[in-house]
Amino acid sequence: MLRDALFPVLVCLVAWIGFDILVGQRDIARAERDSAQLEVNGLREAARISGQMLADRDAIDLQRTQELNHDLTKNRGLRRDVDDGVKRLPVKATCSAPTSVKASAGGLADAGPAELAADARSDYFTLRDQLALSKQMILGLQDHVRRICLR
Q1: Which residues, including other chains, have CB under 8 Å from residue 61's CB and lie 6 or more apart?
Q2: Over pLDDT 70: what percentage of the chain?
C-alpha cells in the first residue's frame, strides 16, 4: 500500500523535474533567439548604411568626374581656339617706360599686348588640366568627408 501511494508521487516528482529542465532549456533558447535577432537587425542596419555610403561615394565620384570632363573639354576647346588663332592668350604684364630716346624710337611703345610664347602654350594648358584635376580631387575629398565620414 505504501508502494502504491509512493509510486504516483515519484512519477509526479520526475515529471516536475523534467518539466523544470525543459522550461530552463526553453528560456535559454528564447534568449539565444532574441540575441540572434538583435544581431541580425544590427547587421542589416550596418549593411544598409554601408550600401548608402557606397551609393553616396559613387554619386560624388560621378559628379566630380563629370565636372572634370567638362573642365578638360573647355580646356581642349580653348587650346584649339588658340592654336587656330581664334583666341589669344594675353599675359598681364607691364612694360617700363623707355628710359632713353633710342629705345623709344624703336617703336616698343606701340607693340601689341603681351602674349605667351608658342612654346609656353602647351605648358600653360597642361597646368590648366592639372589644376582642374586637383580642384575636383579636393572637392571630391571634401564631399567624401562631409557626406560619408562625418555621418
Answers
A1: 140
A2: 86
Number of domains within the chain = 1
Inside any domain, residue 61: yes
pLDDT value at 22 more than 70: yes
Q: For residue 90, report the phi and psi dihedrals to the nearest 5 degrees.
A: -70, 150
Q: At what angle do helices 118-144 and 2-84 cross, to 10 degrees?
A: 160
Specify burial of residue 64 (Cβ count, 10 A radius: 0-12, 13-18, 19+). Answer: buried
Give the residue numbers spanning the domain of 68.
53-87+116-151
Q: What is the pLDDT of residues 70-124, one digit of tens each?
A: 999 999 999 999 999 899 887 776 665 555 555 455 555 555 667 778 888 889 9
Domain-embedded: residue 139: yes
Q: Is 1 helix (H, G, I), strand (E, B) or coil?
A: coil
